[in-house]
Amino acid sequence: MNGIDGGVAVVTGAAAGIGRASARRFASEGASVVVADIDADDLAETVDLIEADGGEATAVETDVSDDDDVAALVESTIDTYGVPDFACNNAGIEGSSAPLSDQSLDDYKRVIDVNQTGVWNCLTEELAVMADNGGGAIVNMSSIAGLSAAGGGPYVASKHGVVGLTRVAAAEYGPAGVRVNAVCPGVIDTEMIDRASEEMGEEGIDQIVRAKPLRRMGDPDEVAAAVVWLCSEESSFVTGHPLVVDGGYVA
Ligand SMILES: NC(=O)c1ccc[n+]([C@@H]2O[C@H](COP(=O)([O-])OP(=O)(O)OC[C@H]3O[C@@H](n4cnc5c(N)ncnc54)[C@H](O)[C@@H]3O)[C@@H](O)[C@H]2O)c1
């Protein structure tokens, strides 16, 4: 896609699922990619996959809920490839789907720490360096749970928070040439959904899938295509937008 070739991308949560697919898509379009995750082994596998396809990638073990880790991630990206042009702040956890009163404050805080504060940590590091560098494009991973009650309380709250941060960042940094959007996937076939099925039972996930006009789960590559499009010049006038990629569920 226009404008990706030769750029530098950072993708968090890149050891699996949507993050890995997005990192591979950035690399296949010609970007150098820094992949970040808490899972060092699977992260190394993402690098192997990208290199096997002829792409360029470096792994940086990172916990997005730790602001020092995220500062080190951005610093290491600049040292390795230069200031990032693109970022996909994707790392996330699902938390429990139990009713609110059955969840503890710790359950709530853990999901907020990773999904919402993680995006905050990434944005605060990325926006400043991108703005100083003349611009860039950021995609934050929200969810249909960022637009509706499609999940447990902590998860829904965290993903609504991601949409809010996306809008503020887009409004504040548009004048500096940084576009900031969110992607809101529906049910996508990843390990997160395998774990959620174990908790809710297959029937819970099937019910959501049956409610989708397209009557199937999405593939991580279908989300990756949206992520990279939102970073490309093809979407040059799109900012502050939560792009739904859900097979029609929200509709
Ligand atoms: N799969 C879906 O149906 C779906 C739907 C909507 C939104 N999402 C969102 O997409 C993103 C990716 O989900 P996925 O389905 O690929 O999940 P996944 O569990 O397959 O992958 C998530 C990755 O994030 C990493 N991670 C977790 N905590 C981290 C932390 N503190 N720091 C760094 N990395 C961490 C994990 O190690 C893992 O590699 C998440 O934000 C998720 O909420 C997924």
Q: Return the structural class.
A: alpha/beta
Instruction: Please outline the major beta sheet.
Output: 7 strands, parallel
> Into which percentage range does the β-strand content fall?
15-25%
Order of helices and strands: EHEHEHEHEHEHHHE
Organism: Halobaculum gomorrense
Keywords: NAD, Oxidoreductase
Protein name: NAD(P)-dependent dehydrogenase, short-chain alcohol dehydrogenase family
Family: Belongs to the short-chain dehydrogenases/reductases (SDR) family.
Main features:
single chain; 251 residues; alpha/beta; Rossmann fold; 7-stranded parallel sheet; 7 strands; 47% helix; globular; binds nicotinamide-adenine-dinucleotide
Please characterize this protein's 3D structure:
It is globular and about 45 Å long. The protein has helices spanning 17-28, 40-52, 67-80, 105-132, 153-173, 191-200, 202-210, 220-231; strands at residues 8-12, 32-37, 56-61, 86-89, 136-141, 178-185, 242-245. Helix 3 (67-80) packs parallel to helix 4 (105-132). Helix 4 (105-132) links the parallel strand 4 and strand 5 (136-141). Strands 3-2-1-4-5-6-7 form a seven-stranded parallel sheet, sandwiched between helices. Helix content is 47%, strand content 16%. The protein is an alpha/beta fold. The structure holds nicotinamide-adenine-dinucleotide. One of its GO terms (molecular function) is oxidoreductase activity. It comes from Halobaculum gomorrense. Keywords: NAD, Oxidoreductase.
Write the layout of secondary structure elements.
Layout: E1 8-12, H1 17-28, E2 32-37, H2 40-52, E3 56-61, H3 67-80, E4 86-89, H4 105-132, E5 136-141, H5 153-173, E6 178-185, H6 191-200, H7 202-210, H8 220-231, E7 242-245
Parallel strand pairs: 1-2, 1-4, 2-3, 4-5, 5-6, 6-7
Helix pairs in contact: 1-2, 1-8, 3-4, 4-5, 6-7
The chain binds nicotinamide-adenine-dinucleotide (NAD).
